[in-house]
Structure formats: structure tokens, C-alpha cells
Write a sequence for this structure.
């Protein structure tokens, strides 16, 4: 994939980071506004495809550290399971550290709501890692098809091997 | 020929679907709402979350979300297994 | 007689949103059953899943209901049902994962056979 024009790279320099800021906003306010871990994680994962489209494959591979996204995936899954285990005297996934707001519906912003916010952050990490790794692997497969013979897949069966 | 049969089957199935949707309960009047009313009444007072959908995804039905994360991880690992040798980095 | 016809007509007008779902299902089935290109079949499957999600959200709609967020719901007291929205969120993420897996398999099939046409793939088998 060739890098695009200087217009696209300038716009990417300016706006790609706001994608991450907006995604973190959506993740952190998941209990107050429409949104949450999955949606915000998908928004944050847009950053990587934006960088890939704007800067092309060579700068992408030079800039990328794949271990970061694998670590995010691992961290999100383990943290999600641990936050689920926090409510164990009662039941799995019981929201044990929430402060009940009893009675009438409030008309204001709530700062925290127990494990729901923590699980939003954990699932956000997990979705960021998973979607970014999907983008990385699928783009790597395009390189695999482009370069032709002798590359991976089912050995001895592909037509490029013969 | 095969395409004609397929198109006929699609039209027949679509007619059956439209017929079925005509007989459904009117839009805007859901039938069994006891569980949803309970959750709408208790999401803020018990779990202190303004957003009922998030409270449901992560609290009332947290086990579903664990399975969903597992599905996402499974799809990711199967994609990684499909392309395991691909993309020799330079 | 005329009463029943009028009632049927009003029911149909009220349920027109369901007919949109039926049209989406028909278009997706047409794409899945008659197209030869694997990418077009994948698009058909994605549209089918989206129409099912649309149908689920539609089932939870309540007359003059606001969104299920307490302080953003607007003037009315009613809120739409949260359960279909929650499970639709689950279904959307799973559909995304399966679509990524499906497109990866299409990439591998294209690498293996050198074509996207399902008839040629069937002929080249073995």
C-alpha cells in the first residue's frame, strides 16, 4: 500500500490523535452517556487503519510494535475476569463496590458506578487490542499474497508453491 | 435456470416474511415487558448507572459479555492461525 | 367488513417498519443465493445480520419512549426496552468478528485457487 498525498498525511497528523482522545472519552463515560467499552474501543482502533492508509505499508511496519496490542488484549481479558470475580461472596459479576443511589432518578452526571466503569475500561483495552491485531494480520496477509511463492499458508497445497 | 429458481424462492420467502410481519403486534407496544421494567426501575437505584444499556451489558448480563469477549478473542486467534507465516517484515 | 379492512390497513401502516426489515432480508438472500463472487456473498451475509439486528431493536421500541439513559431521555416518562439493545450490542460485536474471519478465509481461498468465482472454485476442486 503506497502512502497517500501530503494532504492526507497532514490531516492524519492533526486528527488521528483526536480519534484516540474521543475513543477514550467514549470509554470513560460509558455509564453516563450512550457508548461504552466496545464502541470506544472500535473508535480507538480506527487510529491504526488511519495511519496505515495515510502513511503506507513501509512506514507502518517500521512504526508498529505488535506486542503492545497483544499485551492490551491480554490485559483487558484478565482485568475483565478479575473485575467479574470481585463480587464473589454474592455472585459472579455482582457489582459489589457500587454506591446505591436509592429512590428517585437523578438528573446529573455520576462520577463512578462501581465495577461497570472498570469493566468498560477493561473491555475497551480488549477491543482495541483485538481490532488492531485483526487489521495488522489482514494487512500482513496482503503482503503475503503480493510477494508470491514460498509464503506460509497450507504448505504443498497452494498454487504458488508449485 | 438455477438463477430463476433462486429468484422465485427469494420472492416466495419475501412474500411469506411480509405476510408474517403484517400479523405481528403493532410497533411501539411490546408484549412482555416485566423484566425490562424491573431493570429500568433498578438500574440507577441498585447499580448507580445512568446508562441502562451499559448497566445491563456489564452487570445484569455480565456473563454474556464474558462470552462475547471470548468470541472476539477466538476470532482473533483463528485469524492469527490462518495467517501464521504471512507478512515477512523488513 | 369495512372495519376489518380499515383495521388491517392501519396495522399495515403501523407495521411498515417491519416491511423494511423484510426487504433487507430479501435483498440479502438475493445476494447470497444468486451472486458468484465471494466478496458479494460476504456483503450479503453482513446485510442479513444487520437486518436481524434492526429487527431486534425494532421489537423493543415503545410508543414515545426515550433512550434508556436516565437524564437524557427527554420529556416523556417511558423508555424503550433495554434488553434488545444490549443483546444487539453483543450481536454486532460477534458479527464483526465473524466478518473479519470470513474475509480472511476469502483471502486464503483467493490465494489457493486464484479466483473468487464459486463455480470455478468448485471445478478446480481436487
Amino acid at each position: 500500500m503506497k502512502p497517500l498525498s501530503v494532504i492526507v498525511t497532514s490531516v492524519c497528523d492533526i486528527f488521528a490523535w483526536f480519534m484516540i482522545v474521543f475513543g477514550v472519552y467514549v470509554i470513560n463515560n460509558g455509564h453516563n452517556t450512550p457508548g461504552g467499552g466496545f464502541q470506544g474501543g472500535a473508535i480507538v482502533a480506527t487510529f491504526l487503519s488511519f495511519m496505515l492508509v495515510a502513511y503506507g505499508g513501509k512506514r507502518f511496519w517500521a512504526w508498529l510494535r505488535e506486542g503492545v496490542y497483544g499485551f492490551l488484549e491480554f490485559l483487558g481479558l484478565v482485568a475483565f475476569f478479575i473485575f467479574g470475580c470481585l463480587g464473589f461472596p454474592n455472585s459472579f459479576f455482582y457489582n459489589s463496590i457500587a454506591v446505591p443511589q436509592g429512590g428517585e432518578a437523578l438528573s446529573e452526571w455520576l462520577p463512578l458506578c462501581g465495577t461497570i466503569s472498570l469493566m468498560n475500561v477493561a473491555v475497551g483495552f480488549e477491543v482495541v487490542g483485538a481490532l488492531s491485531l485483526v487489521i495488522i494480520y489482514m494487512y500482513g496477509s496482503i503482503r503475503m499474497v503480493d510477494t508470491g511463492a514460498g509464503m506460509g499458508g497450507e504448505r504443498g497445497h497452494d498454487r504458488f508453491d508449485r | 435456470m438455477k438463477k430463476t429458481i433462486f429468484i422465485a424462492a427469494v420472492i416466495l420467502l419475501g412474500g411469506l416474511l411480509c405476510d408474517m410481519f403484517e400479523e405481528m403486534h403493532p410497533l411501539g407496544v411490546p408484549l412482555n415487558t416485566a423484566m425490562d421494567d424491573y431493570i429500568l426501575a433498578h438500574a440507577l437505584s441498585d447499580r448507580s448507572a445512568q446508562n441502562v444499556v451499559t448497566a445491563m451489558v456489564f452487570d445484569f448480563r455480565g456473563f454474556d459479555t464474558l462470552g462475547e469477549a471470548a468470541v472476539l478473542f477466538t476470532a482473533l486467534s483463528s485469524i492469527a492461525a490462518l495467517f501464521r507465516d504471512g507478512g515477512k517484515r523488513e | 367488513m369495512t372495519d376489518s379492512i380499515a383495521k388491517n390497513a392501519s396495522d399495515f401502516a403501523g407495521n411498515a417498519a417491519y416491511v423494511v426489515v423484510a426487504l433487507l432480508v430479501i435483498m440479502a438472500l438475493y445476494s447470497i443465493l444468486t451472486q458468484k463472487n465471494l466478496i458479494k456473498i460476504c456483503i450479503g451475509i453482513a446485510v442479513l445480520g444487520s437486518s436481524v439486528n434492526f429487527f431486534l431493536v425494532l421489537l423493543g421500541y415503545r410508543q414515545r419512549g426515550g433512550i434508556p439513559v436516565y437524564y437524557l431521555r427527554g420529556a416523556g416518562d417511558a423508555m424503550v426496552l433495554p434488553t434488545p439493545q444490549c443483546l444487539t450490542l453483543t450481536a454486532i460485536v460477534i458479527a464483526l468478528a465473524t466478518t473479519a474471519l470470513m474475509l480472511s478465509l476469502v483471502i486464503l481461498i483467493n490465494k489457493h485457487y486464484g479466483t473468487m468465482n464459486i463455480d470455478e472454485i468448485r471445478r478446480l476442486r481436487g
